Amino acid sequence: MSKSLFLGFMERMLAFPLWIKQIIFLNLSKDLVNYLSNEFLDVQEGELFHIYKPVLSEQGQNELLTKESKFDDSIYSFLNCCSKGMSLIEIAIENNFTMEEVSKAFTFCKTSGFFSSSVPNLVSAVAGFIAGKYRTGEYFIRAGKMTIEQLDEVLTKQQEMNQSGKHVFIAELMVQMGFIRELDFKSIIFMKEEAGKRFSLNPDDVPTIAMEKENYDIRVENTRLKEENEILRQKMDALLTFIKDHKEPKKEIQESPEPSLATNPIAQEDRQTQPAEPKAQAEEEPEFTVQLKPFADES
């Protein structure tokens, strides 16, 4: 199975030098503590919604295979990614979904019985809240932060205050009555707001430590060959210039007209007795051959 976009992204991030990762960690730590409670910062991997990996039940596998119910294509894309063992964050990035869209698909598939194993309470609670299925009080009950009895007390208190003309939000009352912390409420609200944002990932945009050694060696070799070829061209140009500057011009020989053999029998006799002079060989110019070296293949 090919690597998901998110895993490829994380591998490049984790390959950064330690001194880079340390600064990233410090800055992220300072930023996240302003928005998230320890419930989300110190949570175990199996209970963190974003990296949870749903496992399809036999019913879910059959639906993916037959598409008998004719659901929206996004549901089948979600089920297909689940069948490949992807986490929820991988599914979001692979399909360009928001986490809100993933939460809705997750909640729908869970309710439809498409998952084989029971989902952790915190994962189920976060998914339902982001998807808009659970309200604030129900979320904290399902997440194990409050009991039903405590929620009843809050609702009773809210009703009394409303009757007296003091309107107050239920989350504010839960904090005032000490059932939850203010940061717990702010964390889940912030997560829901951020879940509506779409995150498109292109791993090629992630900085890398260095180019691969093979490509580096090819580039070095090609640079060396270019330099050698340039030197050979300069030598060839210099040699041709030297030959052009020192080449002697040909002399034109003016010969007196010879008497006609027909009218000068003596010249005709001398021409017959004298051996023929060898023909002057044409002056040959030297040939120069420069062989350039081919570049290495960078493909």
Can you describe what's shown?
The protein is mostly helical and 299 residues long. It has 3 domains: 5-145 and 180-205, no CATH class; 148-179; 209-239. Helix content is 56%, strand content 0%. The protein has 14 helices and no strands. The chain has helices spanning 5-14, 18-32, 38-41, 58-66, 73-83, 88-95, 99-111, 121-131, 136-142, 148-163, 170-176, 182-194, 213-246, 265-273.
Which properties best describe this structure?
0% strand; mainly alpha; 14 helices; 299 residues
What is this structure's SSE topology?
Layout: H1 5-14, H2 18-32, H3 38-41, H4 58-66, H5 73-83, H6 88-95, H7 99-111, H8 121-131, H9 136-142, H10 148-163, H11 170-176, H12 182-194, H13 213-246, H14 265-273
Helix pairs in contact: 4-5, 5-6, 5-7, 7-8, 8-9, 8-12
Distance between the termini: 25 Å
Number of helices: 14
The fraction of residues assigned to DSSP E strands is: under 5%
Order of helices and strands: HHHHHHHHHHHHHH
What overall geometry do the principal axes of the alpha carbons give? elongated
Provide the low-confidence segments as ranges.
none
